[in-house]
Specification:
Elements lengths: L4 E3 L8 E4 L5 E11 L9 E9 L4 E5 L3 E3 L7 H6 L4
Antiparallel strand pairs: 1-3, 2-3, 2-6, 3-4, 4-5
Length: 85
């Protein structure tokens, strides 16, 4: 079996991002091309983003789900919380 992962450069590394699948924001810590297969005969590689949320816990999501946090539209409730009308 070959290596199980390799690091991939990404323009948002160490930036604040949002996982659009869960809506959770955090800092993009790493992007890894990882063999996610549980079989010794078949390899399935996937690029996973590792995001550290406000509590310090890291979670993974597909790289396609990662967007800069500042690009997200604010809801009315979010605007009120930040003092905008």
């Amino acid at each position: 079996m070959s290596e199980c992962y390799e690091y991939v450069p990404h323009r948002l590394l160490h930036c604040r991002v949002r996982d659009i699948a869960s809506g959770v924001e955090g800092v993009l810590m790493a992007v890894v091309n990882e063999n996610v297969s549980d079989s010794d005969t078949y390899e399935h590689w996937m690029e996973l983003a590792y995001i550290r949320n406000a509590s310090g816990r890291e979670f993974t999501t597909a790289v396609a789900n990662v967007h800069p946090a500042y690009d997200q539209p604010q809801t009315a409730a979010g605007r009120r919380a930040h003092g905008s009308a």
